[in-house]
Amino acid sequence: LALVLFFHRHPRALLPSDRLAAFVGYNLKHVTQSLDLLAEAGLVEQSQHPTQAARLYVLKTPESEWLAALLEIASTREGRRNLIAALPGVASTDKSGQKSPNGKDRRPRVARAPTKSR
Amino acid sequence: VPERDLVKTGITGFDAILGGGLPRGNIIVVEGLAGSGKTSLGLEFVYRGAKEFDEPGLIVLFEVAPLKVIRDAAQFGWDFPDLERHGKIKIVFTTRSVLQHELEQADGLLLAEAAQIGARRIFIDSLPPLPVDGQNGGNGARDVFHLLAQGLQREHLTAILAVEAPGVERTRLATPPLEEFIADTLLVLRIQDVQRAASRSIEVVKSRGHHFQMGRHTFRIVDGHGLEVYRRVQAPRDASRELAAAYDPATRVSTGVPGLDDVVNGGYFLGSTTLLVGVSGVGKSVMGLQYVAEGARRGERSLMLSLDEAPAQIMRNAATLGIDLEADIKRDMVRIQFDSPQEIEIDRHFYQIEQTVQQFRPRRVVIDSLSTYASTLGTSVRVFRDFFHALVALMKQYQVAAVYNHENPEILGMSSMAGEYAMSSLVDNILLLNWVELGDEFRLGLTVAKMRANPTSRVTHECEVVNGQGMRVLPRRIRPAALPFAAYQGLVSRASEHHAARGPDEE
User: Fold this and answer.
1) Do B227 and B37 meet the contact criterion of CB atoms below 8 Å apart?
2) Rounded CA separation B490/B460 (Å)
3) How confident is the model at residue B180 (pLDDT cuts 50, 70, 90)?
4) Contact between B46 and B123 (Cβ < 8 Å)
5) Mind giving me the DSSP string for chain A?
6) Does pLDDT of B479 surpass 90?
7) pLDDT band at A104; cut points 50, 70, 90
8) Nearest Cα to A55, choosing from A25, A17, A9?
9) CA distances (Å), origin A68, targets A5, A65, A75, B66, B350
């Protein structure tokens, strides 16, 4: 969700993934996983130069209605918390992306775009 | 430089200062403090290029989120998302180190993005101030900047680079910051404190490959539009303005004041500059209104420039003289341009006058009053004189017969015609309006102190302002009960005296 918010504010970002992770405030491993999910969902397009660490991330559906609704909910801390709680299998998350004491996986997940995701 | 090689910025007033635009391919560094307008300038450069000149552009941001830039640009009416949809611009968020690496590679992702839309312009916002050459790693920074410049040039991009300036006033350093060496064009944006107000200025410090107007020019960031740059009033205009000072030796413009045309040889010449000097309340503005009304009556357009009174008040004053100024305004024969003297920016003010004169093409102009300009411009006599000089040159270029009211603070007598403002040499005609205390009443005297290229009689004429009619110059002998002026001496001194001998008209 933090990545979606970031790409909404920065629809075309040319960044190394560690810098992107720092911008969104999560560790690199989980940001990389989430990026893969976003790319798989067709929400973000990534391109990389063979000799460059930086990738170009382009938000593919910057003006869709569902994204606008999602961003509105996610614009507050409370909204984000509620949204994450509503996702199946995710209670809350922290910056480390570690599992919670009860053994549930607390890594951030990203909902797939409902349409034209493939 | 041929016209085709100049890149127009499209920023109002700026291309004229740049001699038409910036040479294509130049690396332009814009320096200024935070809030000085660097981002607005760079964004408008790219926006105008894409929108008006079919030159797509790339915007590279390091600190500000593109979404905020898009939001802020919308306040100026710049629709960046629409331009993005049409492939005219791209906004890329990145880091400085990534940009550096990108520009070192001919096939980098950033340049590929630029090539995809055929970008001709790029704006990079922003770079930190680079150290003085040779100090604190200055040589290394110079290499980085040089690589950056080479990368941009390789792609034939005309680039604007915003650079945060240190928080001190720029001085001519023995060793200037190194971006000054490498940049082809250096623009400095400032915010100056002017008597508790703030004024923005832009200076083209250097620019390779073309002629430009040096000095600090005022600019504003205007909601719904963008930047508006106003050439500094002192900057030399084109030669045609100076050459246009030639007089039409035959055409005169009637003053509209009964009896005055005879005193001034039939009227003022076209293209002439007339100064009406007198204490407050003596009738200068009344004469101005009559001058304008006479123009409207003859089908000649008039412009009134007022700092002292708002249009509604001027129209009311005119009505008391039997002049229907509102009707003349509706007929487009008269235009009133009012600007509050509070916090006036003289470059912008002059620009607006220039625009009006060029578009409205008046034959007559009344300026009410020069003394308000003088007090508004504060202690800078030089700025006032430069403004007045520019105004006179403008009026001469368009062959306008201009009348300037000037308040002389002395209620009786006059020790100088224009006070500390040495402008008499710029003026063709000077009419002195003076109270004369005779017996127990103030009477009004008018003396032509100067009239270039005209025979001048130095006779002081009596005038009066009649309610509902305005001013008129009286015949030299009119009132049997009172002695005519000719019966006195020292009328324009503080101590007029009755002649012991009889005056010429008393015989």
Assistant:
1) yes
2) 10
3) low
4) yes
5) -HHHHHHHH-SEEEEEHHHHHHHHTS-HHHHHHHHHHHHHTTSEEEEE-TT-SEEEEEES-TT-HHHHHHHHHHTSHHHHHHHHHHSTT-----TT-PPPTTS-------PPPSSS--
6) no
7) very low
8) A17
9) 10, 5, 10, 17, 48
Report the sign of the C-alpha dihedral through residues B415, B421, B425, B429, in that order.
negative
Give which of B321, B288, B285, B277 is closest to B446, Cα–Cα: B277
pLDDT of B291 > 80? The answer is yes
How many whole angstroms from its chain centre is CA B402? 17
Q: Tell me, what's the ipTM?
A: 0.71
Burial (CB count <10 Å: 0-12, 13-18, 19+), residue B473: buried
Estimate to the nearest angstrom the gap between the alpha carbon of A6 and the chain centroid. Answer: 8
The torsion angle over the Cα atoms of residues B252, B250, B360 and B311, rounded to 10 degrees, is -10
Which candidate in B109, B111, B116, B125 is best for mutational testing of the A interface (most A CBs within 10 A)? B109
Rg for chain B, CA atoms, rounded: 29
Residue type, B367: I
Angle at the Cα of B259 from the Cα atoms of B362 and B432, rounded to 5 degrees: 75
Residue B251's nearest CA partner among B240, B266, B262, B273 is B266
Partnered with residue B132 across adjacent β-strands are B177
Q: At residue B28, what is the residue type?
A: I
Q: Exposure pattern of B260-276 as b/e (b: 16+ CB <10 Å)? A: bbebbbebbbbbbbbbb
| Among A residues 24-63, those touching chain B with beta carbons less than 8 Å apart | 47-49, 51-52, 54-56, 63
B319: enclosing H helix or E strand: helix B311-320
CB nearest to B105's CB, from A15, A16, A51:
A51
Instruction: Give the amino acid at A94.
Output: D
State the average pLDDT over residues B229-245: 74
- Contact between A49 and B109 using a beta-carbon 8 Å cutoff: yes
pLDDT in tens, A61-84: 767 788 888 888 887 888 888 888
Question: Taking Cα atoms as reference points, which of B11, B29, B30 lies closest to residue B20?
Answer: B11
Q: For residue range B325-381, list pLDDT tens digits in order.
A: 999 999 999 999 998 887 788 899 999 999 999 999 999 999 998 888 888 876 567
More confident residue, B148 or B72: B72
With an 8 Å Cβ cutoff, are B109 and A14 in contact?
yes
